[in-house]
Amino acid sequence: MDEFRERDLSAARFERVNLQDAAFDRVDLVNARMHSVDFTGADLRAALFRRTRLRGVELIDVEISGELSNVVVNGVDIAPLVEAELNRRMPERAKMRPDDPAGFREAWAILERLWEGTLARARTFPEAALHRGVDDEWSFIQTLRHLNFASAAWAGRMVLGDPSPWHPLDLPWDEAPRWDGIPCERDLRPSLDEVLAVRRERQAMVRGVLDALTDERLAAEVTRTEPGWPRLERFPLKECLHIVLNEEWEHRLYAERDLNALQKED
């Protein structure tokens, strides 16, 4: 099997090449041109399609999960349609983009209530199942570890100013760089209670931020330039909190989806 690692193949031309079952990891395809390409059975994860044009495509039995903005299909921007349908199915979802302190506090209370139900359901499974991923996704426990990381990053570091708010069990996203001082041990197998002990602390931290939130504070910008992540200048504090809400909302849906799959397996 040929392997290409740390190679610059920019401007290369592939014609009548068989790449069936090939694996691409951290590959830069910016401005690539593809013609008569067969993606049958392809599995694309963490892919960025900004300013991408697809012409003459056939989308049949295709599943897309991700962030949609200005996605035009046959002349129709489908992103607002998808948003409206998701909010119709889950009315509380519309409350996850609040504009005022009271709205943020209401959204967080909704999330804590919903997560309590998901956690109660997860506890009905053997703990070994909670370490098992579905379709190469994170396990239930890994999902909680990632949410701990997200709260630490966007509330602990960006909002509260702690340059290193991490716990050894925190888990960044899989494609994240390996930063010095930030844990990234996907294969750890802590118990559910160990992870929940950290999670309760992080939930209390976010709740405290929101309880103290004022209109003036919500309109502020934050800057963090210390080594680590995030490193942003004059970033809206409101967006930091929106990211926390979005992470909590979306990953709970992923967790419920995977619990459904685990239940069918048993």
Commentary on this structure:
This protein is mostly helical. The protein has a domain at 94-265: dinb family like domain (Four Helix Bundle (Hemerythrin (Met), subunit A)). Helices cover 41% and strands 5% of the residues. The strands form two sheets. The chain has a two-stranded antiparallel sheet with strand order 1-2. β1 (72-73) and β2 (76-77) form a beta hairpin. α2 (101-122) runs parallel beside α7, α4 (140-159) runs parallel beside α5 (192-211) and α4 packs antiparallel against α7 (237-265). The radius of gyration is 21 Å and the shape is globular. The mean pLDDT is 92. Residues 111-254 form the DinB-like domain. This is Pentapeptide repeat-containing protein.
Compact overview of the structure:
It holds the Pfam family DinB_2. Residues 111-254 form the DinB-like domain. The protein has 7 helices and 4 strands; from the N terminus they run E-E-H-H-H-H-H-H-E-E-H.
- Tell me what the CATH architecture of the domain at 94-265 is: Up-down Bundle
Biggest sheet character: 2 strands, antiparallel
Radius of gyration from the alpha-carbon trace, in angstroms: 21 Å
CATH superfamily of the domain at 94-265: dinb family like domain
Q: Give average pLDDT, whole number.
A: 92
Encode the helix/strand succession as letters: EEHHHHHHEEH
Q: What fraction, in percent, of the residue positions are helical? A: 40-55%
Uncertain residue segments: none
How many helix segments?
Answer: 7
CATH topology description of the domain at 94-265: Four Helix Bundle (Hemerythrin (Met), subunit A)
CATH top level of the domain at 94-265 is Mainly Alpha
Structural class: mainly alpha
Total beta strand runs = 4
Strand content: under 5%
**Major β-sheet strand ordering:** 1-2
Distance between the termini: 37 Å
Shape: globular
Pfam families: DinB_2, Pentapeptide
InterPro entries: 5peptide_repeat, DinB-like, DinB/YfiT-like
Protein name: Pentapeptide repeat-containing protein
Domain DinB-like: 111-254
